[in-house]
Prior knowledge:
Blueprint: E1 5-10, H1 16-29, E2 36-41, H2 51-54, H3 67-76, E3 80-84, H4 85-90, E4 102-105, H5 108-117, E5 121-123
Amino acid sequence: xxxxxxxxxxxxxxxxxxxxxxxxxxxxxxxxxxxxxxxxxxxxxxxxxxxxxxxxxxxxxxxxxxxxxxxxxxxxxxxxxxxxxxxxxxxxxxxxxxxxxxxxxxxxxxxxxxxxxxxxxxxxx
Length: 125
C-alpha cells in the first residue's frame, strides 16, 4: 500500500456525506499508519459539531444520521480532523464542547496554506 499526504477541505454542511465517503474510500487503499490524512473543517461546516444547533438545521436531513460516528471511526484510524477556531467562535461553538478526537487550529485557511506548502494534496469535494 502507498502512503499519501492529503488535506480534505470542507466548508459546506451539505458536503459532509460526500467528504466522509471520500475519506473512507481512501483509508481502505492507503497505508494510514504512514500517511498524513487531514480533514480541515471551517466556515458553516463546523455546525455539525454542535448537535444542539445542528438538530433542526435545514441541512440536517442531508447529512447521514451517523456522520459523527464516521468522524470518530476515521479519527481512530488515524485521520486528523482540524477545526477552525474562528469558525467555531463565529458559530458560537465552545472548544470545550468538542470531542477529544478533534483538533482546533487558530485559522483554517492558514492551516490549508501551510499544508499545501508542505506538499499535501488539496481535495475539496
